[in-house]
Amino acid sequence: MATHSPSEGWIGASLLRKEDARHLLGHGMFIADVRMPGIQDVAFVRSQMAHAHVRGVFKPDDARASVFTLTDLGPLTILEAGPELAAHRHSPYPALADDRVRYAGQAIAACLAPTRALAEDLADRVTFRLDELPAVVDCVEAMRPGSMRVFDAWPDNAYITSAVNEGDPASLASAPIRLRRQLRMNRQSTAPLECRGVLAYWDHRIDELVVYLSTQGGHVKRIGLSQALGLPENKVRVIAPDVGGGFGGKNRLMPEDIAVAAIALKVGHPVRWIEDRREHLLAAIHAREHFYDLTISAQADGTLLGIEGEVYIDAGAYSLWPTGSFMEASMASRNLTGPYRIRHLNLKTYTVATNKSPMGPYRGVARPGACFAIERLVDEVARELGREPFDLRRQNIVRSEELPYETAAGMRLDTGDYVASLDTARDMVDLPAIRARQARGEPDGRAIGIGFAFYTEQSGHGITEWVKRKSRVAPGYESANIRMLPDGSVIITVGTQNHGQGHETTFAQIAAHELKIDPARISVRYGDTATGPFGFGTFGSRSIVFGGGAVSRASRALAEKIQRIGAHLLQTDAASTRLENATVHGPTGEIGFTEIAYAANVRQEHLPAGMDPLLDVTATYEPTETGGVFAYGAHAAVVAVEPDTGVIEILDYVVSEDCGTMINPMIVDGQVQGGIAQGIGTALYEEIPYDEMGQPLATTFADYMMPCAPEIPMVRMAHLVTPAKATEYGVKGLGEGGAIAPPAVLANAVADAFRGIKASFNETPLTPRRVSEAVERARRAGDRTE
Amino acid sequence: MKSAPFEYVRPRSLAEASVALGRKGITTAAIAGGQSLLPMLNLRVATLDLLVDISRIEDLKAVAKTPTGIWIGALTTHAAIEDGKVPDLFGGLMQHVAGQIAYRAVRNHGTIGGSVALADPAGDWTCCLIALGADVRIAGRDGMRFQPIAEFVRSAFETTLAPGELIVGFDIPGPGKPFRWGFAKVARKSGAFANSIAIAVSQGTKGPASVVLGAAGPRPALLSAVSKQIQAETPEAALRLAIEADVNLCAPDADAYQKRMHTATILRALRDMRAQ
């Protein structure tokens, strides 16, 4: 890999990441590594009650100036969050609690001290009086008439209620197969390695507020901070240093961000807040909690017809700026047909406020739930019909000759070969061999199961899609600036925010490809609103499509100018030259980029008459098709399950995926493996349960089960490569795909292990207790019917 | 997650440690590896006035074969046992148990004495040492005392340690031959405390046998009915009856799932033991 030769081209090269060295050596710079003279730490006082009136906050007399409540921070503007739809109800979320707390963990006061330990000592001395209210903890019960309301001004607890009605759902009533199932994906954390963090100070020289923020998109956060604080945007600079994972959880403006920035405006020194893991599990973005009550209809021959029912999203206590969690419901319902030719949909969705930490995006956004629902239902139909689930999938999946295919919910599946992907996964996992093994039985009494699931991953969706989603901020493009310095080296600044995706490497590969220079000569920078072009950041599997596209466009424009200067210096036409190995080659001579760059930057008398100096291009990019390009893949897993303990061992896990052209296949492999690790977390381990009082029951890693290396199998991968038609090089985004299918594939595998007794596994995570109890229920039901 | 302030001393001898731990009118705690105490301090669920760091006391580090078995000092880390730095008299049992405690990073710091002193009902070492019939040696202001570990651990997070006392180490009697063992554990994931842990040992062809179940009741329990059944080729039905009787006795509050799980771990430990 390190011996890659330029003649092989840079697109598709598995280069080692430029980012690796600093991280392996511990030389990265995360928020908590930033040192500032005079810095003080913030500790938040948080509500221990899920729902209460705040009757008073009492500061220690000897430290009144070091304790901040909401009134001490002002004036602040509360931003309206969620989609721009009149039907979406406003849930004002102050930076610190006003007269109401709506979830256990909501910040009430901020304490400032020279160290975090001292700040926590101070926080222990702040007292408050809360009058407890009944907590709203179940999103289905919350919609029943008479339920306690999270917001008094609302008529019920729904942020928004919506419907999807496609095809002719009335025709489903007479379908020969109609199965109703209830499925639940429970609440979890996004749990990045680095928790949240914010450090803010007023820079007196430049006369601006500097905010270091562990974020996935500093430019958009600047918009929100500027509006909340009432500062012009040119007086706010957001810097994101190394960001230790985000997964969606660092892509919303959070109350702590605003509070710390507001405190910095009040005091004359830098202040910071480094979130600890307990706070993270308590009060950072929560994800995933969906409940589905669905009926699937099919013909007797296995043709899937339609889905009806209800989708509930437990969205927590507030909408987070800018977008809230409305996308959960729309994406869950629109993705519910999966890759199948299901033409009739009748769904009602409820995005429900509860007394829990606000929901936000998490790798896969809604699709893990939708995939879990549809793929479980496909297996249930297969079991009902006595069919091999794999065959039923293959029968119903969209065929390559049908692409592009518009799904019932209006998504345009663009390119690929879904059947080939399924078949590849089947062959890799060796379905017949597993069926034979199941027939033999296991000497240790465990049950073997095999499961399949298929996902599609909308990526690179542009303005059409975001307008359809009524998004307050519409990330329909991305930008890049490329500069060649006098010595021919290159600096690229982008508006995306690398936080583990390897942009410093892949974007350099793209520029190297266009400029015909070595990626080692190219630096890629990001994460500072003072130096980079505006961009929306990194989320939604968008960066390689948008950011890579912008780098590609800017590089091509730069290459063209280099070529023109080179031709001029060689006294020939640009058309008779070509670029190779950092050199412009003409019919009779050649000239290196170093000379051209020197001329363009500091010796403009050598430039063609009338040409502007500098090699400096800023470009934006949006794909030609803005509804998105769809990566996809089939996952298959083999599990061994101990029925009495409910312990699951993953014996094999394979993926056959297609994300179009791969810029750096090694990074693709890493994304797939990492996504699956998180998907396995959703499937088997991670959960934040709440009791009936609204108390979260997993607030440390002793109770929150984060899978570690021993829990994660080495995934075997196959890559099908069908280039997208609408993007540069044919790339598709693939950051989220790995996380989408594991809950579905593992639940299907466990259900397969117990298909003989018809046990149902329709709730994640599949904890040992849930698995064993499902088996026991099925055994007892079987005993009763025999 | 930063601890409230506390005073800190690092005594060099058992006597000094005992005096510090026994100081009247204040809350004290001994710290060895700190793998349980430090998180509790940092979460401020435990607060204390004086932390007594016993990690430099040489008397607590000894490991030796003795005429009757083996001596393991309280400061011996899980990692040292896992890595075979403690003489193995028990066919690899202690090494196996050590290697399944938490994570390697925890095992590098965590000690056998600290684990037993914490007396977590799911603690691996308490189960293992009860199965092996170990004695605990305890130092206090009035000198040394010995106690069988099954009596030393009273209940969940409760031992017979009095103010000023600390564990010096463990006397483990050498095994009857042939020695066989089985071990089974159910945890939500690697590194998590067990939801069920069973250790079965048999010593000699007709000699004493013991089966211990942890994470079920307030403390690991020797299963007396099962222990009588393990030598013969007991039919599984009889074994299950014995297990049911023992589990009902030591974990009366266990629900149906927990009983199934405990039964499964006990059966697996027995199966593995018989297979040796």
Produce the secondary structure layout:
The complex is a heterodimer of chains A (786) and B (276).
Chain A: H1 20-24, E1 40-46, E2 52-58, E3 67-68, H2 70-73, E4 100-101, E5 107-113, H3 116-125, E6 127-132, E7 158-166, E8 177-185, E9 188-189, E10 197-203, E11 208-213, H4 218-229, E12 236-239, H5 255-266, E13 271-274, H6 277-283, E14 286-287, E15 290-298, E16 304-316, H7 326-334, E17 344-353, H8 367-385, H9 389-396, E18 405-406, E19 412-413, H10 418-429, H11 431-440, E20 447-459, H12 463-468, E21 478-484, E22 490-494, H13 503-515, E23 522-525, H14 543-569, E24 578-580, E25 583-585, E26 590-592, H15 593-602, E27 616-621, E28 629-641, E29 648-658, H16 665-685, E30 716-719, H17 737-740, H18 742-753, E31 763-764, H19 768-785
Parallel strand pairs in A: 1-13, 8-31, 11-12, 16-17, 22-23, 29-30
Antiparallel strand pairs in A: 1-5, 2-4, 2-6, 3-5, 7-17, 8-15, 9-14, 10-11, 10-13, 15-16, 18-19, 20-28, 21-22, 21-27, 24-25, 25-26, 28-29
Chain B: E1 7-9, H1 14-21, E2 28-31, H2 37-42, E3 50-53, E4 63-65, E5 69-73, H3 78-82, H4 93-99, H5 104-109, H6 112-118, H7 124-132, E6 135-140, E7 143-148, H8 149-152, E8 153-155, E9 158-159, E10 166-173, E11 179-187, E12 194-203, E13 209-214, E14 221-222, H9 224-229, H10 236-250, H11 256-275
Parallel strand pairs in B: 1-3, 2-3
Antiparallel strand pairs in B: 4-5, 5-10, 6-7, 6-10, 8-9, 11-12, 12-13, 13-14
